[in-house]
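Extended Data, panel c. Modelled sequence:
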Amino acid sequence: MNILSRKVRKQAKALGVRYEPVFMRANGSQLRKLAALYDSGKLRPVIDSTFPFDQTLQAMAHVEQGRTKAGKVVVSMVPDHS
Protein backbone atom coordinates (compact mmCIF):
# COMPACT_ATOMS: atom_id res chain seq x y z
CA MET A 1 0.00 0.00 0.00
CA ASN A 2 2.91 2.35 0.69
CA ILE A 3 4.14 2.03 -2.88
CA LEU A 4 0.66 2.59 -4.33
CA SER A 5 0.04 5.72 -2.26
CA ARG A 6 3.52 7.26 -2.53
CA LYS A 7 2.47 9.99 -4.99
CA VAL A 8 -0.60 10.95 -2.94
CA ARG A 9 1.39 11.00 0.32
CA LYS A 10 4.02 13.25 -1.31
CA GLN A 11 1.31 15.67 -2.51
CA ALA A 12 -0.32 15.66 0.93
CA LYS A 13 3.01 16.42 2.62
CA ALA A 14 3.58 19.36 0.23
CA LEU A 15 0.15 20.69 1.24
CA GLY A 16 0.88 20.22 4.93
CA VAL A 17 -1.80 17.57 5.45
CA ARG A 18 -1.65 13.90 6.38
CA TYR A 19 -2.95 11.20 4.07
CA GLU A 20 -3.95 7.87 5.51
CA PRO A 21 -5.99 5.20 3.71
CA VAL A 22 -8.98 3.78 5.58
CA PHE A 23 -10.16 0.24 4.98
CA MET A 24 -13.82 -0.09 5.88
CA ARG A 25 -15.85 -3.04 7.01
CA ALA A 26 -19.49 -3.20 8.09
CA ASN A 27 -18.91 -2.12 11.67
CA GLY A 28 -21.05 0.35 13.63
CA SER A 29 -18.25 1.21 16.05
CA GLN A 30 -15.89 2.09 13.21
CA LEU A 31 -18.55 4.20 11.51
CA ARG A 32 -19.18 6.13 14.76
CA LYS A 33 -15.46 6.88 15.07
CA LEU A 34 -15.33 8.09 11.47
CA ALA A 35 -18.45 10.23 12.01
CA ALA A 36 -16.83 11.85 15.07
CA LEU A 37 -13.65 12.60 13.08
CA TYR A 38 -15.73 14.10 10.28
CA ASP A 39 -17.84 16.17 12.70
CA SER A 40 -14.69 17.53 14.37
CA GLY A 41 -13.19 18.53 11.00
CA LYS A 42 -10.26 16.12 11.33
CA LEU A 43 -11.51 13.93 8.51
CA ARG A 44 -12.18 15.62 5.19
CA PRO A 45 -13.22 13.21 2.46
CA VAL A 46 -12.25 13.98 -1.11
CA ILE A 47 -15.27 13.81 -3.42
CA ASP A 48 -14.75 13.33 -7.13
CA SER A 49 -18.38 13.74 -8.15
CA THR A 50 -21.93 13.45 -6.83
CA PHE A 51 -24.88 11.81 -8.57
CA PRO A 52 -28.56 11.90 -7.56
CA PHE A 53 -30.02 8.52 -6.58
CA ASP A 54 -31.92 8.16 -9.85
CA GLN A 55 -28.55 8.27 -11.67
CA THR A 56 -26.96 5.44 -9.70
CA LEU A 57 -26.24 3.46 -12.87
CA GLN A 58 -24.44 6.46 -14.37
CA ALA A 59 -22.40 6.82 -11.17
CA MET A 60 -21.36 3.17 -11.35
CA ALA A 61 -20.44 3.55 -15.02
CA HIS A 62 -18.38 6.65 -14.13
CA VAL A 63 -16.32 4.56 -11.70
CA GLU A 64 -16.11 1.44 -13.89
CA GLN A 65 -14.88 3.46 -16.87
CA GLY A 66 -12.06 4.91 -14.78
CA ARG A 67 -13.35 8.46 -15.18
CA THR A 68 -12.73 9.42 -11.54
CA LYS A 69 -9.83 11.81 -11.06
CA ALA A 70 -9.52 11.64 -7.28
CA GLY A 71 -11.74 10.82 -4.37
CA LYS A 72 -15.06 9.12 -3.97
CA VAL A 73 -18.15 9.09 -6.12
CA VAL A 74 -21.22 9.87 -4.01
CA VAL A 75 -24.79 8.82 -4.71
CA SER A 76 -27.05 11.26 -2.89
CA MET A 77 -30.42 10.35 -1.43
CA VAL A 78 -31.24 14.04 -1.02
CA PRO A 79 -32.88 15.67 -4.07
CA ASP A 80 -30.82 18.41 -5.71
CA HIS A 81 -32.83 21.65 -5.67
CA SER A 82 -30.24 23.84 -7.37
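The chain has three helices and two strands. This feature is highlighted in the accompanying rendering.
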